[in-house]
Specification:
Blueprint (H helix, E strand, L loop, with lengths): L43 H20 L6 E7 L2 E8 L2 E12 L3 H9 L1 H4 L6 E11 L2 E8 L7 E12 L5 E7 L11 E3 L1 E2 L3 E6 L11 E7 L1 E2 L6 H8 L5 H25 L7 H14 L5 H12 L8 H8 L1 H11 L1 H7 L2 H12 L5
Parallel strand pairs: 6-8
Antiparallel strand pairs: 1-2, 2-3, 3-11, 4-5, 5-6, 6-7, 7-10, 9-12, 10-11
Pfam family, one: START
Protein name: START domain containing protein
Keywords: Aminoacyl-tRNA synthetase, ATP-binding, Ligase, Nucleotide-binding, Protein biosynthesis
C-alpha cells in the first residue's frame, strides 16, 4: 500500500468494489504484532509455510460452497451448519454459513486484528504474532480457555489472508510444529487443519440499503489430549455459532461509533473539553453495554497514529481542537461509516472530509 487512502463516495456503497484491500488496516509501526522477526525467503521453512497456506486457501475455497460430501447438521439462530467426514481423520470438519450486515472490510478487521477477537470469542485468552513471512502470512500462537476440568488449549498456526479476483476475502489457519514456541504449563496444544473464513459481499439490503456479506466458517479442530473423538465432534458442531457473536460485536461497535460521532459533532466548540468528551464517550459505551477499550483504543489510534500512547486521549482531543479532532476521526472511521450506511451521518462526514482543516 502506498500513499494516502482516497476519500470514498459515502453516499453510496458498491459491494463489487474491493479496492479497499489495498488500503486495509495494517496497524502502526509501534503495534507489537508489527515488531516481530521476519522469516527470510532463503530459510528452508519459508516455501513450506507458503505452500501450506496456499493449499489451505485452495481447500477452503473448494469447500465453502460445495455440496458433495457435506451433510446438513442443523440450523440455529440463522446459521446453517453442515459437517464433512475425512477418511484419514476421525475429527469432522464443520461449516457454518450466515449473513452479517457489514462490509467485507469491517468483517476483515474484526477477524484478523488480534485485539478485537476477545469481543466476539469468549474463550479467547490472547494471541501473538511470532514470525512474519509476508504482510499476509504469519506464524501465530493463540490461547483459549476451556471449561473445568478440561485444560486450556493453545495453537501454533500459520495464518494467511487474501482477496480473490472476484472479491472473496479468505482467511486460513493450519497448525505447524515449532520447537521455539513451547507449550506453557496448564495448556494442551491443539491442532487445526485448513480452518478459516470466507467473506462474500452480497447486494446491499433492499430495505435498509446497508451493506451485507455472506460469511462461511470452516473448522476442523482437534483439541488433542484425552477427550474422546465423539465428544470432540459433538462440541465442534457449535463452533460455527461464533458467526453470531461476531455479528453482535460488529453491530455493537458500529452503534457506539455512530453515537460518538453524532454527539461529538453536536458539541459546541466552546464546550470541547476533555471532561465533557469523556462523559460523552462513556455514555455512548454505557448506552450500548460496550466496553471502554472498544472505543478508547481505536480513537487513540486514528487520532494519534499510535497504539501505545501515555497521554490521555480526551486531553489530546481537547488540545488539537474540535475541527482537527473530528477530521481525523471521520477519516479514521471511513470503513465503519460505509458499513453503518446512515445517509445523514455520512453526508456530515463527506462535508467535513471535503473541507480539511487549514494548518
Amino acid at each position: 500500500m502506498q500513499g494516502e487512502r482516497p476519500i470514498p463516495d459515502l453516499s453510496t456503497f458498491d459491494p463489487a468494489d474491493h479496492s479497499w484491500w489495498q488500503w486495509r488496516e495494517m496497524g502502526s509501526p509501534d503495534d507489537p504484532y508489527n515488531q516481530i522477526p521476519k522469516l527470510s525467503p532463503e530459510d528452508s521453512l519459508y516455501k513450506e509455510y507458503l505452500d501450506i497456506t496456499e493449499a489451505g486457501y485452495e481447500s477452503i475455497l473448494k469447500d465453502y460452497d460445495a455440496d458433495e460430501g457435506w451433510v446438513f447438521w442443523k440450523e440455529q439462530d440463522g446459521i446453517t451448519i453442515h459437517s464433512k467426514d475425512h477418511p484419514d481423520d476421525p475429527v469432522r470438519c464443520f461449516r457454518g454459513k450466515g449473513i452479517i450486515p457489514a462490509t467485507a472490510e469491517v468483517l476483515r478487521l474484526h477477524l484478523v486484528q488480534v485485539d478485537l477477537r476477545k469481543y466476539w470469542d469468549d474463550m479467547f485468552l490472547g494471541g501473538t504474532y511470532k514470525i512474519e513471512l509476508t504482510p499476509t502470512v504469519r506464524v501465530c500462537n493463540y490461547k483459549f480457555s476451556a471449561p473445568w476440568p478440561v485444560a486450556s488449549r493453545d495453537f501454533v498456526i500459520i495464518a494467511g489472508e487474501k482477496i480473490t479476483d472476484d472479491g472473496l476475502f479468505v482467511t486460513v489457519v493450519n497448525s505447524i510444529e515449532r520447537d521455539d514456541i513451547p507449550v506453557e504449563e496448564g495448556f494442551v496444544r491443539g491442532m487445526l487443519k485448513s480452518s478459516g473464513f470466507v467473506i462474500k459481499p452480497l447486494d446491499n439490503d433492499p430495505v435498509t440499503g446497508k451493506p451485507r456479506c455472506e460469511i462461511t466458517y470452516l473448522v476442523q479442530l482437534n483439541p488433542m489430549g484425552w477427550i474422546p473423538t465423539i465428544v470432540v465432534n459433538t462440541v465442534n458442531v457449535s463452533q460455527p455459532l461464533c458467526i453470531n457473536t461476531l455479528k453482535n460485536a460488529i453491530l455493537l461497535t458500529e452503534a457506539m461509533v455512530e453515537e460518538m460521532l453524532r454527539k461529538f459533532t453536536e458539541l459546541p466548540a466552546e464546550e470541547w473539553k476533555a471532561d465533557k468528551l469523556r462523559r460523552l464517550l462513556n455514555k455512548a459505551i454505557d448506552n450500548h453495554n460496550g466496553k471502554p477499550e472498544m472505543l478508547y483504543e481505536p480513537i487513540q489510534y486514528v487520532v494519534t497514529g499510535k497504539r501505545i500512547c501515555d497521554e490521555d486521549i480526551c486531553e489530546t482531543l481537547e488540545k488539537i481542537g474540535k475541527e482537527e479532532a473530528l477530521y481525523r476521526m471521520w477519516k479514521g472511521s471511513m470503513p465503519y461509516l460505509q458499513s453503518i450506511a446512515n445517509k445523514e451521518l455520512n453526508a456530515t462526514a463527506a462535508d467535513a472530509l471535503a473541507n480539511p482543516p487549514k494548518h
